[in-house]
Amino acid sequence: MVNFNGSFFDPVSPIINANSRVLEFGDALIEKLRVINGAFMFWEAHYFRLMSSMRILRMEIPMEFTMEFLEDAIRNTISKSGLENKPVAVTIIVVRRNGMDNTVNDTSVDYLIKVKPLDNPFFILDEKGLKVELFKDFYLNSDMLSNLNSNNKSINVVAQIYAQENGYDSCLLINTNKHVVQAIAGNLFMITANHIKTPPLTDGCIDGIVRKQLIELAMNLTDYQLEETSISPFELQKADELFIANDLTGINSIGNYRKKVYTNEVAKILVGQLNAKARLA
User: Are 243 and 271 in contact (CB under 8 A)?
Assistant: First the structure.
């Protein structure tokens, strides 16, 4: 079932009308998280990211949009969908409502919550790894809007089509300064010797929740030094390891970029620590 403003509908029901700002302007925010055995993974971080993103987009936050309100709404959606005893992926979409003549009405938003079962309650690392390539047709902007998880995903969509057409699993996106920023669906981490790099938010990457958790975990690895710094495309083939951080799947190792083959030693360490941290969150 889909929860739209507290009412429940079949997932294929026509909920959004033709005048919705989400259709005409892409004026929506998206938050994705995991719920395992009734426990919300990194829920506080997800909630505050959503609230911060709404403020940045100048959406009026309803008084009832407390952490407890949204948690209850998610639990009710999971219950209505008959998924109480399964690991669940949750998607929250917040849309600004239309005013008269399709003008902005800051005083209210609509929310939609949808859920689907996950195959595994734990973050699982695929040993094979992804085959990736640089996507150079379009560039990400290095600004705060690029940090938001909104439904403005034109570059990601075109990059994914490019990947499918050319036999890649994913692509790495670059910004207008020609720095490697992230993958299509997640943040990028690069390991060279004992040095771990991940692009800073100022480069225009998504402000990922799992990204934050991995940064904290990596800072505690005694054999490695972590740095949030720009990554040049020329560094990719010199690296020992590349992996992608995603809020739903956790860590996805990159196996190949052009002729370079990568290891996944650090990813193996961090995925175990991430699972442990998620259980305590």
Answer: no
- 70 and 97 fall within a common domain: yes
Residue 103 clears pLDDT 70, i.e. is over it: no
Q: Residues 7-36: pLDDT tens digits?
A: 999 888 787 777 788 888 889 999 999 999
Confidence (pLDDT) at 104? 56
Q: Would the CA dihedral through 180, 184, 185, 191 be positive or negative? A: negative
Nearest to 203 by CA among 144, 116, 150: 144
| Same-domain status, 69 and 166 | no
Q: Give residues with Cβ within 8 angstroms of 159, minimum separation 6.
A: 135, 137, 138, 171, 173, 184
Structural domain that includes position 33: 2-117
In 10 A of CB 142, how many CB atoms?
20
The reply to whether 37 falls in a domain is: yes
Check: pTM over 0.85? Answer yes or no.
Answer: yes
Whether 152 and 30 have beta carbons less than 8 Å apart is answered as: no
CATH number of the domain encompassing residue 137: 3.20.10.10
Pair (6, 141) in one structural domain: no
Residue 12 is predicted with a pLDDT of 82
254: enclosing H helix or E strand: strand 250-257
Average pLDDT over residues 236-257: 97
Residue 107: what pLDDT? 53
Burial of 47 (0-12, 13-18, 19+ CB in 10 A): buried
Q: How many domains does the chain have?
A: 2
Is the domain of 100 the same as that of 138? Answer: no
Please give the Cα distance from 217 to 214 (Å, whole number): 5
Please indicate, yes or no, whether residues 75 and 142 belong to a single structural domain of this protein.
no
Mean of per-residue pLDDT scores for the chain: 94
